[in-house]
Amino acid sequence: MRANPFTIQPFARADTREGGGDVADIHRPFHPVKERMSPSGRKPDVALAEAFACALLWLLWQAIRWPLLALLIVLEPVVRVLLCALALAGTLTALLIRFAVNRPQFPFWGTLGASLACMLLLVLWHAAIRIFSER
């Protein structure tokens, strides 16, 4: 069977570089990748499988995201008070022991580092809430 020479293929274009083609081809931008691709070249079952896989992954992400976000939001006030209290207590203890008692074996920088780590954990907690709350 011979192909009909008058059928128009999707994304087909007359070659305008050699003077062929009509005026409508001049106004259409040339895209070399799209010119070679043909939607009829893809099988419909592959596109359906891709769409199904994407939908399944999205549904799995939602099933993980919503309960985790709810847990993070419910525990956020408790975690905030606990971490801020630990950071404040550690900082005040380090300053008090360093300047009032002046014990040389006390780990001043380690205590200040632990206090800073508590505040960084709180920042990470809020970042996790922000990440899980975005669509």
Report on this structure.
This protein has 135 residues and is mostly helical. It has one domain. The protein contains 4 helices and no strands. It has helices at 23-27, 32-36, 44-101, 108-133. Helix 3 (44-101) runs antiparallel to helix 4 (108-133). The radius of gyration is 32 Å and the shape is elongated.
Task: Write the SSE topology.
Blueprint: H1 23-27, H2 32-36, H3 44-101, H4 108-133
Low-confidence stretches: none
**Gyration radius, rounded:** 32 Å
Estimate the global geometry from the Cα principal axes. Answer: elongated
Number of β-strand runs: 0
Mean pLDDT: 81
Order of helices and strands: HHHH
Task: Tally the helices.
Answer: 4
Coarse structural class: mainly alpha
Distance between the termini: 52 Å
Could you estimate the helical fraction of the residues in percent?
Answer: 55-70%
In percent, how much strand structure appears in the residues?
Answer: under 5%
Q: What count of domains describes the coordinates?
A: 1
The largest sheet, given as strand count, sense and whether it forms a barrel, is: none
Summarize it.
The chain has 135 residues and is mostly helical.
Summary tags:
135 residues; mainly alpha; 4 helices; elongated
